[in-house]
Structure of EKC/KEOPS complex subunit BUD32:
Amino acid sequence: MAAADAQFPPPKVLTYPASAPPSLVTQGAEGRLYKTTHLLPDRPCALKYRPPKPYRHPVLDARLTKARISSEAKVLEKCWREGVPVPAVYAMDPAAGWMMMEWIDGIPVRAAINEWLGERPAELEERPVEVDDTPLVDLMKRIGTAVGALHRTGVVHGDLTTSNMMLRPRESGGQANGCNGDDGKAKALEGDVVLIDFGLATQSMSDEDRAVDLYVLERAFASTHPRAERLFGTVLGSYKDTFKKAASVLVKLEDVRMRGRKRSMLG
Ligand SMILES: Nc1ncnc2c1ncn2[C@@H]1O[C@H](COP(=O)(O)OP(=O)(O)OP(=O)(O)O)[C@@H](O)[C@H]1O
């Protein structure tokens, strides 16, 4: 923590004595994510901090930071109340630029899929019928269910990618860590999908906004997991099963795809 402290001073709330020192998990362009504890030493939490930006006017910067933190917390709280799988918000101080939320164990879905696909020789993709894709198909279904629940709540994420989804191991059964052989491999994709990073989320009931959310996820699959792209229809299938109004969103998705294709043809 000491070296990081000198480079990136933590928010004041993290400078008070604690039984376990906070650790800096990620440092992005806009914000930082620390792992710390909330109230009890064995209750881990994530603290998202948006430090002041020296290149912005201080009054404008303070106003923007406050608005972003409170908007992210508000959307997360709405989702959590309505049963969408997101981290619970524990505390926040928008004026100081931070929000504390439930720590989600596990690894990003992106890493889990890449790990799982990475173990398979590429030539097997030519003969997909012979490959048992069940664990991947199941995961795709859980992704579609999570996104369907999100949209049902009236929230669009704004940056749906497999990096913004965590795969949280279930209490019983656990994850592949420490397991060996086929059993361990099958378990690598087990767990609950939890959506994170609501920094760009908005409340919206529009088919267009929802379709753009799905399109962003579809593109993310194409570029990050080209070998899993052919299974994206499974995501859309379970999205439809979860969300009553999905049919008109999927029609809109066709338009959004068409616009995307035109844009890429025009360069
Ligand atoms: N609640 C959480 N529990 C565990 N890890 C988390 C949690 N929230 C975020 N992370 C980890 O921290 C990383 C960064 O978080 P997040 O994406 O919310 O921040 P960011 O990209 O800096 O935010 P923004 O896009 O709003 O600027 C995530 O990719 C994830 O690995």
User: Anything to note?
Assistant: Residues 107-266 form a domain with the Transferase(Phosphotransferase); domain 1 fold (CATH 1.10.510.10). Helices lie at 2-7, 58-81, 109-118, 134-152, 181-187, 207-224, 232-242, 246-266. The pocket of adenosine-5'-triphosphate is lined by residues 25-26, 28, 30-31, 33, 46, 48, 87, 101-104, 108, 163, 196-197, 199 (CB under 6 Å).
